[in-house]
Amino acid sequence: MSEETLLEFPCEFPIKVMGETREGFADAIVEVVRMHAPGFDATRVEMRPSSTGKYLSLTCTITATSKPQLDDLYRALTAHPMVKVVL
Asked: What is the value of pTM for the model shown?
């Protein structure tokens, strides 16, 4: 059961998550990421506010082990109520 992908696993994979700047946003996202990538190092999260400060972008780089893992993580992040966009 091999799914088509151009990635070779395991690999370092950055995921960008954007939402409104509010207390607890980064912690909530780190919690979701850790559920799907238990070895995720939260000290590697890159945070960038928008020019107006209304939105916050987080880049979380995980060690991806499979396409289903990435699919599940993307589904969990996009379903989170604080998240506006996942890239």
From this structure: 0.92
